[in-house]
Specification:
Number of helices: 3
Strand order of the largest sheet: 1-2
Structural class: alpha+beta
Low-confidence stretches: none
Largest sheet: 2 strands, antiparallel
Shape: globular
Number of domains: 1
Distance between the termini: 37 Å
Helix content: 55-70%
Amino acid sequence: MSGRPVKHSVTLKGHRTSISLEDEFWHEFRAIASEKDMPINALVAQIDAERGMDLGLASAIRLFVLRTLKARLAALGQAHGAG
């Protein structure tokens, strides 16, 4: 994996658009969509609807991935600490 952003095509509001994300973020984003049993375009639309106008879509997706993974880690820590 190169660490350089790669363009990925998605459909948003009926139009094709590209999002530049690093492979690692794209892989995790697709895995999260799969776990949620959501099409990737539906998850992109959800994130787009929730982001502020001052935040780009690619940045919003990166933050979504980061927050999702941090929540998982916190839940794992609580599960192991409760035992």
